Amino acid sequence: MGANNGKQSGSEGKGSSSISSDLSSSTDQTSTKALKNAATSEDSDLSMRTVSTPSPALILPPCSPGVLNGSSTSSSTFGTETIAMVHTPPTSLTHPQRSLRQPRDQQGAPIDILPDHAFLQIFTHLPTNQLCRCARVCRRWYNLAWDPRLWRSIRLTGDVLHVDRALRVLTRRLCQDTPNVCLTLETVVVSSCRRLTDRGLYTVAQCCPELRRLEVAGCYNVSNEAVFEVVSRCPNLEHLDVSGCSKVTCISLTRDVSFKLSPLHGQQISIRYLDMTDCFALEDEGLHTIAAHCTQLTHLYLRRCVRLTDEGLRFLVIYCPSVRELSVSDCRFISDFGLREIAKLEGRLRYLSIAHCGRITDVGVRYIAKYCNRLRYLNARGCEGLTDHGVEHLAKNCLKLKSLDIGKCPLVSDAGLEQLALNSFNLKRLSLKSCESITGRGLQVVAANCFDLQLLNVQDCDVPLEALRFVKRHCKCCVIEHTNPAFF
User: Most buried of 4, 163, 221, 315, CB within 10 angstroms?
Assistant: First the structure.
């Protein structure tokens, strides 16, 4: 590679290798041949980036016959991408209790005075790649950076990240004290790592039995088989985000695990939070399987799962009676019959989003208002079949409603707002964006009765300036989103 050659162990033994990052930002020219070799070699580089630091990378160069055992301190840069090495622990020692009587030029840095517990407290706030960098400073920092208490979570992101290899190297290092098993890791977040494949998830499944949270949002190369492997090998998994994983059509145990378990417990998965937003291939049959296996679900998000119908919601309510938050936004086949099924969740439902479900009318909203009287949040934006009658049912039955979005509902007028204002005293957020029938009179009634209003969206509404000023006077803590240039 185009970096200064360093010494590196020829093997990646668990006790002899570590992961570190170099903050190099130079733009030295690298030969075309070296770049080509680095780009085409499958195991030549391993980039690591996080949300807070999007550019750092972790790269593992192939071992050459001439490299001897020892620590590597070399680094190089491809453009603005930072490169780090997998190397042995630093040979330099840093003593925290270095005598202060030594000459100034022989004393260590002032930070060396800090005790170990102070370092650990600082390290807890660092993202994964920064923590790896700290392991390269000196032997003391190396030992502290790999303290198991700091590795309850791994968070990586980036389009160019070689995330499969990153997970393999990290889990291998974390399994040093407990061979093949990492008992401390509970959270893995690799959202937007588009190079993640099933291989990376297999690594997590095999090495992290205590995993509780997994987020692979936007990783469209992940398939059902890898997800099945994770949920089967990680019995404590509670939070799963596979949004944007278009190949994921179901959540289930593997066949082998199902056969080994008893019929009574073989279908149980402990997932409580499941986000399958933009899983376009999800159908009613897949939702049926999910509901049958994940009976403890409390939060389920199915935004833009465009193939779902009312039948899928029927299965969901039968198997998952504890659902508290549900989103079926932009599911165009969901109708009033689907809301009738959702209403069977009754007082347990707190959050519901049915935005842009064009087949929903006052009939379906009436079911929700009648049976789900503890509803706190409702998003019905774009439900053009909703009228003042539906809003009236909500206002009179859902007295604990705190957030309501009825934007782009052209049939909702001042009459509906008056009923809302006279009954929903706990309302804090109200969106009326693009409601053509709303006037200043309706807004004034809302402002005069909903004193706790914190957010009001009246963008693209034909309301006079005086009405906006009236809202501002009566709801002093309210943020008004508007498109009237004269109001500020």
Answer: 163
